[in-house]
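Input chain follows. Return structure tokens only.
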Amino acid sequence: MRSGLRQITLLVLAPLVAMATNSHANGSVWLPTPGTGSVTVSQVSQSADDFWHIVNGEMEHTPFPPGLEQTTTSISGTYGLSDAWALDAQVGGSEASNKYTFPHPTLDGRTDLNLGLTWRFVDEVTSDAPSMAVRVGAIVAGDYEINWPTAIGEGADGLEISGIVGKVLGDRLALSAEVGTRNRSNDVPRETFVNFDAHLIAGPHVVLSAQYHLQRSDGDRDIHGPGFTRFVLPFVDEDINRLSLGGTVSLGPVDIGLRWFDVLDGRNTADFNAVAGTFTYRFGF
């Protein structure tokens, strides 16, 4: 069982992109071995031609003629402090623009810096129960403008906390779930998020992954609702349902991954499709 857990830990820890305007690290119960870690560089291209907004008082999914597209390059890392504790971090740069007509400015800048500390208080290797962990994270706002549809983030510092549970089944399949909340400054609405993940070891060097992500916001503003202007964009009630599928190939200390994302439903959000490529180097082994 221990070798199966170690293989999952090394192969499936890769950065995921939540939106064209936001990026956050996922928590994991499968922590790096103490004194080891990984560094991942990711490149994400995403675009949208439609979005969910208020039309005649109702939330509707309609075409967005200018379109949106964004490219983000990020670097993330994990490091095992002990059997029960691990650090993670992520930051990058991004550029967002309209795809067709250009009523909004092209914006770029440094993305939010995300720092996390995970404590695993139950380890399935030494217990009959699933692995369980708590992750606490800090968000340091990046350097970008916020009051345009092409903004790359909310421009606010924050804290997040989540609980994670996971289990490796038969050394081939790993299932996990994460539930958490994210709170930011500057009156940005609080977010609740849920991640359901599945990882299949398809071969000695290949892991296939799937995730379903839910985000709910407690904002009280809607795009094109009463009193809407571009200056209230950071405060809208943004909900997201997103599916992602992908895989990772391990070549010695290097992992190469490819992942596809699709927003299935939402509120005050664009209907983004995205493709992410990742390159991970593992050290300390």
